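quick one, 217 residues, struct below
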Amino acid sequence: MFKKFVLTSMFLLLTLPGFSFGKVEKSAVSIYEEINPAIVTVDSQLSDGLSCGTGCIIDKSGVILTSAHVIDVGNAVVVTTNNGQNYDAKVLKRLGENKDIALLKIDAKKDFKTVKLGNSEKIKVGEKVLAIGNPFGFSGTLTQGIISRIDYTKNRIQTDAAINPGSSGGPLLNTKGEIIGINQAIYNPDNNISNIGIGFATPINLIKEYLKDFDKG
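---
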């Protein structure tokens, strides 16, 4: 009787709409341990002070994806990797305004750990997401939440995963550990007095269009 109940339960699970053993979610712990070595701190010296943000290594040669507003038109850009190494970075490409993405390059006599790009066309409201960044200089900070809204008009993913100053340029990850967006900004009507849980990311598929022919330098 018990064996029959188990077999029946398994059959019901397999026949439920959308259920699949093939779509295995990774735990937040395993995603963090896998991805964090490919997340960097980006510091840019601007005319009015230091701009700090986050970046993702997307090519083992040292190509880094970040937000354009992090580096702005800085005279010097320094990247700090997960192991504390500092590198002078070359700006390969910068696209401001609504695109707000930039590509940097650092050089070392080794291959770097990288993050895989996902597919932002398949995301859904309510889907679990994670963000890794350097909010307020606290490097390697992991937060999690859901996709709260998708703004197709402005090409923005809205999330309640905590994103704070310093997190810009960091990855918004799905539960496979793939980048589905680059964290860009928070809705902040009270000048950092409170965290109201509204953050925005640029969809990775929009960014992919500008990665096709980049020069690795």
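The helical segments are 2-15, 28-35, 68-71, 204-208.
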